[in-house]
Amino acid sequence: MRGGHVIALLAGLSGWGLHAACAEPARDERAEIAAGEYVAHAADCGACHTLPGHAPFSGGLAFHLPMGTIRSTNITPDPKAGIGGYSEAEFARAVRQGIRRDGATLYPAMPYPSYARMTDADVHALYVYFMKGVAPVAIPVAPNDIVWPLSMRWPLVAWRMMFVPSRDQAGQQVRRAFADPQLARGAYLVEGPGHCGACHTPRGIAMQEKALTAADGPLFLSGGGAVDGWNPVSLRGEARVGLGRWSEDDIVTFLRTGRVTHAAAFGGMTDAIRHGTQHMTEEDLRAIAHYLKSLPPARAEQATWRYDAATGRALHAGDLSARGARAYVDNCAACHRTDGHGYPTTFPPLAGNPVVMDASATSLIRIVLTGSVLHATHQAPSSFVMPGFAARMDDQAVADVVSFIRQSWGNAAQPVSASDVAAVRRSTQASTQGQEGAASSARQPMN
Amino acid sequence: MDATRLKPVDVVVIGGGWAGSIMAKEMTEAGQKVVMLERGPDRSTAVEGAYPGSIDELEGNYRYRLFQDLSKSTVTIRNNMRQRALPYRRMAAFLPGEGVGGAGLHWSGVHFRMPPDDLILRSKVIERYGKSFIPEGMNLQDYGVTYDELEPFFDRAEKVFGTSGEPYMINGQVVGKGNVFSPSRSQPFPLPALKDVHTAHLFRKAATEAGFHPYSMPAANASAQYTNPYGAQMGPCNFCGYCSGYACYMYSKASPNVNILPVLRRDPLFELRTHAHVLRVEMDSTKTRATGVTYVDREGRTWTQPAELVIISAFQFHNVRLMLLSGIGKPYDPVANEGVVGRNFVYQNVTTSFVWLNRNIETEQFIGTGGGGVAFDDFNSENFDHGPLGFVGGSPVWVNQAGVKAIAAAQAGGPPGTPRWGSAWKKGLVDTYRHSLRIDAHGANMAYRDVFLDLDPTWKDAYGLPLLRMTFDWKDNDIRMNRYVVDRIGEVARAMDARQVQLTRREFGVPFDTRKYQTTHLGGGAVMGTDPATSALNRYLQAWDVPNVFVIGANAFPQGTGYNPTGMVAALAYWSAYHIRQTYLKNPGPLVSL
Q: Where do the Glucose-methanol-choline oxidoreductase N-terminal domain residues begin and end (chain B) (predicted)?
């Protein structure tokens, strides 16, 4: 039913009615393909299965995990290199249960514990889209780079049995009682295709998400472990580190443009916006926002964030005695200002920014080291690039400036040490490629 | 040289600067498939603007990172027709850009509307002083378009550029403290004026005391963050001073790269080809219709891009040269006084005077914005009575503190009489850097019969094509104008209680010197007008003889202006595009019939 809802909505939006003169079946198929494409956006398939500069969905994106490197697969309809040989049932089983056509279990880098909740209608539309709306690419992806015995997939079967909801369980989760249809739709999108929890929910000892839906308790979307050196924050109602101070409008705008008065997107979220949420309808984004705002804080915070003007006053008066203050003024303040407010939505604020105040400073350190790109979206065509400072600042200097940022303007987060910075530097291999890294990641934006 | 023929497109745009980007945007909005050819590399804030490499003065202003590669192509220059011209091998007097964004990436940001009287200068001078007032040999002309006609397009350009400024009059009502000589506007500036730096503040005060009417210069350096009508965003200017010669790392200086291309690049109707050096516009056998353009790519391969409409929108003198190389319009012959392409080549008449203030005043010259500052227009355009003075033209006067950088400060050294070396030099340099300010007379340069552009008979570029030859020198009328206005600077300096003043006047008999930077504001050579005997383009910037060629740029100015040209170039681009969209595309042909 929801799939049908998506189809109806899209058909209304995109004016396929204009093609009514064409043969009926073709129009239906076009509508189905378009509906499937929408689901692919909602499920953010492109972020992992499309390598920048390569054919859509031809795979190859590397995930560097402690056990080795795995690569996203070619999911174009090529019968050999891609998934052209999959029947719809096989496709649905792979998407929702993580079982490959040959019966092997997929690595849970594929978020099938979330996709398990996708409706038959959405999976059907997705199947039609991948079979008929995506160009086949006959180039196989390089094999994964995991050494035996970790390369054996059979232990994944047990993992799958333990942590992936069955069709019945998933169905029950989707059909659970909600206060209103918008909330239900939001829950479906976030817990299902959107797979927000894959990054934003903490994982357990077996790398399983500790909660898969809001019904599983307050750990759901309470902030995840580092992904590719980025630290996903809580999407719950915490007033300092979560979305407590964000309005539903803020969330909608963020998912559409990556930039709001509170923050700017970075790291993996830029891909999620670029490939996914910017393509979603206003109605669906509102549903997501409404649902996220329904999630209470995971933990009681000491107090909400309140702006403290002392830092700005001191810097303005030329008092650079605080540790890291001089580096901040020399390197950061032009854009983020001495008062920490930045110039949103161009240059994000540091004062009160949830990412800055998060218990983990990993993201902040990484941004300082490698820089960051705020990508253009359909509704925000400008991209902005922050340069990386890895080549110019040593670990202690970065620690000082990050600590300064975390403790100024009322942020009151824990300082970081040079060894914290060194760890992030190692993990991002930023030490020698800082400037280069920013430039290469900036290859996309051209303004 | 066999060129490979490419798939035809609707419009080919030559040059990736302001004019080309505006035209490409307008044409894609009209549903046209557009290919933009830019001979230089692609450029972006992410690379050329990456802080702190972006603010390397040596790289920016001395190794000319964003400027034309003179080893491939340049111009030759001579002062008069008796001399043999020589190639301009080293950047100095003027700095043409190269690469996506063109001069629009390395410009400073000063963003004016043309004074209404400048657009009808010949008529105005004759009306006020009589025809005999025009000196012998001066080709004084009207533009063929009026301020009222251009007003909506000046407004459009300001909104796209995110221009900061203080209005004086909106729809006939005085609304603010802007330039009292400026014409009425339909809308305020999109952003408030930039704040005065200290020198501008002192100049404002002194100019007022001297009886003049200072105002905040309109600047396309954003005074606050801004989103333009295309949805492109700008950051706010932080007065770092790295505007002219640099890609702005704050995204706050308007450029095609920041303000238009982010949107254009996403448009499936638009294609940008870089390292595409256009050799000529191809013509059919009748020589009245362009069929496309031929260009060389980075690997030396030659391509012909067929197109229905050709827009020549490179830098001023490249436009003139392309017309001459392609046989569009009749080349100018100064002896017979016939022909139009190359005619009315003009420059700008700029001198910079120095004022040293008492040592308890820090002038903080490291701070700056390329477009900001304080000016007065009491001696610009027809704002003053030229009758008793006996010259045509005028000059705004301003403190446009664009940020004095380290190498430039060292080169400037100390006040007159200071040694060029040793501890006295160091002391003088510090004194100048800390306590002086600069005041420009940014004057107009009139057009003359024996100042022109043509193809050089001797020198060729890397592709075997003749270089463009400039024949240029200063004329008495313009020297007298400069000297009169610089004397007014002396009055302001006195009101500033200056410790020492160095008034820089243009001297009679001193020829145009290509070794010193003056300005990149070159103009004319393929001017717009209403008479095909004296203009290469009609009032819509359409080539008179080849109606499917439009030529957009400062080449269209019949004579120089005291203002910086970009605001006018952008407005002319929007004006031309409007008429192409409204009329030409529906019925291709001449927009003016004779």
A: 145-347
Query: CB-CB: which of B47, B233, B263 is closest to A442?
Result: B47
- Give Cα B242 to chain centroid, integer Å: 18
- The answer on pLDDT for B311 being more than 90 is yes
| Residues B146, B172 contacting (CB under 8 angstroms) | no
Element housing A380 (H / E): none
Query: How distant is the alpha carbon of residue B370 from its chain centre?
Result: 14
**Set of chain B residues whose Cβ sits within 8 Å of the Cβ of A392:** 52
Q: Scanning the structure block, which residue is given the tokens 């803020």?
A: A250
Could B235 and A380 be called an inter-chain contact, meaning their C-beta atoms sit closer than 8 Å? no
Contact A447 B45 (CB under 8 A): yes
DSSP alpha helix (H) spans, A129-200:
154-163, 167-174, 181-191, 197-200
CB contact under 8 A, A447 and B250: no
Query: Is B593 a domain residue?
Result: no
Q: CB distance from B55 to chain A under 8 Å?
A: no
- CATH label of the domain that carries residue B20: 3.50.50.60
- Specify whether the CB–CB gap between B250 and B236 falls below 8 A: yes
**Cα dihedral A141→A146→A148→A149 (10° resolution):** -120
Q: Which pLDDT score, from 0 to 100, does residue A445 have? A: 63
Interface contacts (A, B; CB < 8 Å): 83
User: Which residues make beta-bridge pairs with B311?
Assistant: B13, B550
Q: How many domains does chain B have?
A: 1
CB-CB contact of A406 with A415 (8 Å): yes
CA distances from B591 to A241, B12, B548, B586, B594 (A): 62, 19, 10, 11, 10
Contact A334 B250 (CB under 8 A): yes
Is B197's Cβ below 8 Å from some Cβ in A?
no
φ/ψ of B553, rounded to 5, equals 160, -175
Residue B269 is assigned to a structural domain of this protein: yes
Shortest distance between the Cα of B512 and any Cα of chain A, in A, equals: 38
Which of B42, B46, B266 has its CB closest to that of A385?
A: B46
Q: Which domain does B317 fall in, by range?
A: 4-586
Q: Is A14 a residue whose pLDDT tops 50?
A: no
User: Among all residues of B, which ones are annotated catalytic?
Assistant: 521
Give yes or no for B268 touching A (CB within 8 A): no
Contact by Cβ (8 Å): B165, B216: yes
pLDDT at residue A19 in the model: 38
Question: Full-prediction pTM beyond 0.90?
Answer: yes
Taking the CB of residue A4, how many other CB atoms lie within 10 A of it? 13
DSSP string, B463-506: TSPEEEEEE----HHHHHHHHHHHHHHHHHHHHTT-SEEE---P
Q: ipTM for the complex?
A: 0.90
Taking alpha carbons only, the member of B164, B337, B335 closest to residue B252 is B164
Distance of alpha carbon B538 from its chain centroid, rounded?
A: 20
Q: Nearest-CA neighbor of B349 among B515, B505, B212, B124?
A: B505
Supply φ then ψ for residue B448, to 5 degrees: -135, 155
The rounded distance, in Å, linking the Cα atoms of A4 and A170 is 19
pLDDT at residue A156 in the model: 83
Based on C-alpha coordinates, what's the Rg of chain A?
22
Residue B591 lies in a domain: no
Q: What is the CA radius of gyration of chain B?
A: 23
Query: Is B592 part of a structural domain of the chain?
Result: no
Is B187's Cβ below 8 Å from some Cβ in A?
no
Higher-pLDDT residue of B312, A108:
B312
Which of A345, A346, A382 comes nearest B262 by C-beta?
Answer: A382
Structure tokens at A263: 């923050």
Q: How far is CA B61 from CA A195, A335, B92, in A?
A: 51, 24, 10
Q: Look at A385 and B50 and tell me if their CB atoms are within 8 Å.
A: yes
Q: Long-range contacts of range B293-296, CB-CB < 8 Å, 24 or more positions apart?
A: B293/B12, B293/B14, B293/B37, B294/B3, B295/B37, B295/B39, B296/B463
